[in-house]
Amino acid sequence: MSTPASPPAATAPVAGNAVTIQNFAFAPASLTVKSGTTVTWTNKDTDAHTVTSSGSGGPLNSAPLTTGATYRYTFTQAGTYAYFCAIHPFMTATVVVTP
């Protein structure tokens, strides 16, 4: 007797500490890290992009990142941090920080 395979977790948050900006998207779109982790965003597009917290007062606020440029931020408090590209607001993603 066989058991059905589990569906792929395509929308599940990804662990790690790197986000790639490519094809006008943040990959992964949802990243889960532990408090104290430094996340690095790398722009692999030919257009400039930013990493900007959604809402007011968020901690993410990069300058425009040109091709190959990186932005780093160390998350010290648990929570969900939504962000977007201020140049291309349709580009959105989140970082989930666990204790």
Q: Architecture in CATH?
A: Sandwich
DSSP E strands, number: 9
Query: How would you sum up the global shape?
Result: globular
Outline the low-pLDDT stretches: 1-11
Oligomer: single chain
Largest sheet, strands/sense/barrel: 5 strands, mixed
Alpha-carbon distance between the two ends: 41 Å
Query: Which range best describes the helical content: under 10%, 10-25%, 25-40%, 40-55%, 55-70% or over 70%?
Result: under 10%
Which key phrases capture this entry?
Immunoglobulin-like, 4-stranded mixed beta sheet, 39% strand, disordered N terminus
How would you describe what is shown here?
With 99 residues, the chain is mainly β. It has a single domain, classed as Cupredoxins -  blue copper proteins (Immunoglobulin-like). Helices cover 0% and strands 39% of the residues. It is built from no helices and nine strands. It has a five-stranded mixed β-sheet, with no helix packed on it. A hairpin with a 4-residue loop joins strand 2 (18-21) and strand 3 (26-27). The chain is globular, with a radius of gyration of 15 Å. The model is unreliable at 1-11 (pLDDT under 50).
